[in-house]
Amino acid sequence: MSDSLSPTERRTLLQTLSRLPPATFETIVFNLNPPSGILPGRQAPQTSRAVSLLEWADGPTGCGLRTVLNLLATYEPATIEVPAVEIQKTGTQAIRIFLAHAKEDKDVVIGLYDRLKQQGYQPWLDEKDLLPGQNWRDEIPKAIRESDIFIACLSKLSVAKQSYVQREFRMALNELADKPPGTIYLIPLRLDDCQIPELRQNEYGINFQDYHWLDYFEPDGFERLVKAIEHQFG
Questions:
Q1: Phi/psi class of residue 233: alpha, beta or left (left: φ > 0; alpha: ψ in -120 to 50)?
Q2: Where are the alpha helices (DSSP H) in the chain?
Q3: In whole angstroms, what is the distance from residue 139 CA to residue 142 CA?
Q4: Please, is 108 exposed, middle or buried when counting C-beta atoms within 10 Å of its C-beta (0-12, 13-18, 19+)?
Q5: Which of 36, 131, 164, 194 has the highest Cβ tally under 10 A?
Q6: How confident is the model over 136-161, as pLDDT tens digits?
């Protein structure tokens, strides 16, 4: 269910929960009382637990995001007021995430798109964001150029064939070449136990295989993906 938090508010809520003192976070979890098994164990990173908590709260059996927000304001009022002022001053917008994928993986990637949207990000997916009459050969490169994060969705099917998605990967390498060292921009995301393709940007010596990948099919795959994004922009 949705209770009218904007994408920016959702992201701010996630960031705030992730940065709370552990004791305060656990008190909020105790008061919200999510069903057993909804959250990873306490040994998991707090960001992972916060992601799972908000997914449950915003779901059909959850308490609603406003309830989480109100409870957070009760225990840590300053954490609600400060981010709101910062957002108003800087005009911060949702992080733009390009999802590159082969058509064979469309269903899985649409699910990823929806989960990212729920967390307050602004994912871009051709099936969702291309409008009738737009030229996809123009719009896809534009979306890649404007993205803050490029997620390369990889599977045994997609890496074994030549398709337009390979060109998207090369475009991402070109964009990465212009970014400062250490920037998290290109995230190889394995949808199954596939090999990482060897793609190179020869001018700057950038190799696709040099970038640590993430296994989305693992139980904590989505939480680790959010952690990587928040590390860059949090």
A1: alpha
A2: 7-19, 22-32, 46-57, 65-75, 77-90, 106-118, 126-129, 136-146, 156-159, 164-177, 221-233
A3: 5
A4: middle
A5: 194
A6: 999 999 999 999 999 999 999 888 87
Here the tokens at position 10 are 């959702």
**The model scores a pTM over 0.70:** no
Q: Residue 171 has which token pair?
A: 């475009």
Specify the CATH architecture of the domain 96-233: 3-Layer(aba) Sandwich (3.40)
Helix axes 7-19, 221-233, angle to 10 degrees: 90
Listed by start position, the domains of the chain span 7-90, 96-233
Quick one: 97 exposed, middle or buried, by C-beta within 10 A (0-12, 13-18, 19+)? buried
* Per-residue pLDDT, 85: 34
CB–CB of 197/169 below 8 Å? yes
